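COMPLEX REQUEST
Ligand: iron/sulfur cluster
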Amino acid sequence: MVNMVKVDKNLCIGCGTCVSVCPEVFELDKDGKSKLKEKADLQKNEACIKDSIDQCPVDAISK
Ligand code: SF4
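STATUS: Structure written out below.
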């Protein structure tokens, strides 16, 4: 179960990988860094959240 996902904006370099891998959960904010979409369904997107965590080059995503 995934109840919470966080993006550390201090680490994020805005590469966009998580947005490509899991577009229902992540989007690029106005500052060009990733943020969680407000109504993201974390349960439904659990697999691609995991992929995003694995593929983020700076390990900015945690849960
Ligand atoms: S994959 Fe990581 S570094 Fe790239 S936009 Fe997402 S959180 Fe930021």
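REMARKS: Residues 46-55 form the longest helix (10 residues). DSSP finds two helices and four strands in the chain.
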